[in-house]
Amino acid sequence: MAFEDQLREFMKSTLGDALIREDNFREQLSFYIKPEAIFDLCQTFVEDSSLDIRFLKDITSVDWYGHEDEMADGRFEVVYNFYSLKHKSRFFVKCRLPEDNPEIVSLTPLFNAANWLEREVWDLMGITFTGHPDLTKILTADDLEGHPLRRDFPLTWEQPKFSWNMDDPPEVIK
Amino acid sequence: MSLEEKTLHINMGPQHPSTHGVLRVELDVDGETVVRAKPIIGYLHTGIEKTMESKLYYKAIPCTDRMDYLAPMSNNLGFCLSVEKLMDIEVPEKVKWARVCLTELTRLNSHLVWIGTHALDMGAMSMLLYAFRERESIIDIYEACSGQRMMSTYFRIGGLAQDLPPDFDKKVRAILADIPSKLDDYETLLTNNEIWINRTKNVAVISADDAINWGLTGPMLRGSGVNHDLRKDNPYSGYENFDFDVPLGKNGDAYDRYLIRLEEMRQSLRIIRQCLDGMPEGPYRAHVPGVVLPPKDDVLHKMESMIFHFKIITEGFNAPKGAAYVGVESPKGEIGFYIQGDGTNKPVRVRVRPPSFVNLAVLPALTEGRLFSDVVCAIGSIDIVLGEVDR
After folding, report:
1. Which of B204, B334, B355, B381 could join B366 in a cystine, given CB atoms 3.0 to 4.6 angstroms apart?
2. In which residue ranges of chain B is pLDDT below 50?
3. Contact criterion met (CB < 8 Å) for B213 and A113
4. Which of B213, B216, B228 to probe the A interface (max A CBs under 10 A)?
5. Which domains does chain A have, with CATH numbers?
């Protein structure tokens, strides 16, 4: 059985109702699943050796702000990029999160790679990863407010930096 | 408190010469032993992903060079392949072969800079001068192709910016004749050098399972003996036509990564030779009206080409709704562009899967419990470019 079919069967049997739909745009397999199911799914990835999915290559996110049809499913999309070394094949797992309080469980207990990748997604897109050991800013400046990769963050907007006051220094410089 | 119990907090960087850019590492040291290492990045964050999302697909290509400025062609290739997948464009054979040839030259370029700077960090000063001398000839080829020496921006969606220069073959063959003996020289300087071996062997060790769990790619992963090279495993841009080997390490230490990078340069030369011998004739751009820019000659002489040129430059093309990702084996590891189109002429999301960023995250695991002087070796052997770590 080809890896794709094997993976489809596997996803159907492990996820059940949590599997929303499957997408095969340009022969690139992606699974849309419910965000609650992601941790258990990844745990079976790590434990099940027949598929050999131990490689988390990337975590990223998409903001659908301004796209009315997509916003109905939830504004944010978290995209996990998995790779199977044995079958030399890549697939994506995607979860949709609501606009207010986007939150998903962290994968750091399973993959060390998730640590910085999740910090980056939190920093730039503002998606909270619960259970992350050190969810702090990684790329943007310590005193920058907001999450720059959100579509409603203006492209060339700069925060005023002239508010520094000797008597009342900002939090980071104290 | 007695002196022995006290750990010392040291700040390394961001202006330290061996951090290869603006990387800061917070270190807690107990005598000579590192207790805790924490890399702090973001000093070079320029929001390249956000910038690319605000541009037409064509106009985002120059942004890709400015991330990993030591391997501009690999970044160009990653972006162009992703957009071509999104738009379902098939490029002509000649373009594929020329791209392979140039990205392999890029691998040479990047590894030469790496070997020079890494050896400099370890105290072998002369290596830097030799490596940069050889690099110069590769930079000259970039200049002949694109007019730029570092930020080449030579690839376009569906092809190349212009045809390969007439003396391309001759110039690259001169490199092929020249560099193998230079690589042998490097080997005599380093491979059996006792100081080099002492500084790099059994330093910054990572096991195969850990390397996979940390998501490492490129020489960092293959140094631990994991056979994963996207050129072999998921061939893109016609790599299946070429005959080459993927060198693997055994111990996963800095010395193995050095041997791998050296061998990769030799394999790159092999690929380049095959490219030159079999370079097909044909157009340098795909013919997809309205999406791929028409050749410059046609723009000057044909009305339709002129119109398409004007429309593509001003309005761009509308990409379908969907996400495309192609992983490319850059000198540092896997670089890939996750591009989400939405039916308009600008992407909703461009995500760069950064090899150096992911590889750098492993630094604490490589250095904690080891000697302070090994931190420099660990950073060097990861081969980071901060422009790409921070984007």
Report:
1. B204
2. none
3. yes
4. B213
5. 3-173 (3.30.460.80)
